[in-house]
Amino acid sequence: MQELTPDQIRQSFVNASRSEVKAVTFPTDFDAVDWENLDYLGWRDAKMPQRSYLIYPTENGPLGLLLRAPDGGSGKQRKVLCDLCRDVRCETEVYLYVAKRSGPAGRNGNTVGTLICANFRCSGNVRFVPPSKAPHLDAEAIRSRQIGGLKQRIELFFARVKG
Ligand SMILES: [Zn+2]
Prior knowledge:
This protein is of the alpha+beta class and 163 residues long. A hairpin with a 6-residue loop joins strand 1 and strand 2. The protein has 5 helices and 5 strands.
C-alpha cells in the first residue's frame, strides 16, 4: 500500500467519533512501517489497549476502522483461524475484534465482529508460501492469490461495517 500520513489516517475512519479520532495514538515505529509489503496497516493503541485500528487503502483513499478487542483478551483463541488471512500456520493469537457500525446504526450500539491476528501481521502471512508447495506450483501465483483473498475479505468486513 502507499505510504500514509497521520493526518490521512485520522481522516479515514468510517466508524469513529471526532473525539475517538483525536485520541488515536500512533505506533512508536510509525516512521519505519514497511508500506510496500502491507495490504492494510493495523496496530493496537499503546495508551488504550482495548482499542486497535485497521487502515485499508482504496481507489478513493484510505478507509479506517476503530476496533475493540475483547475484555481481557488473551491467548485463548489460539486455535481459531484469522478471518482475514486464514493463515493455518500462524501461531500467534487471534482475537475477536468488534467494530461499531458506521452512522446511526453504530450510534445505536450496533456492532460487527471478525477474528483477526492479534498482531495484525496478516500481510506477512499471505506473502509466505510454504516450501512444500513451491516446487510444484508457482510461488508467485500462490502469493498473489493469497493477497487477493486477504483484500477481498477486508473489503467484505468494511461492507458489513458500513452496512
Ligand atoms: Zn490474519
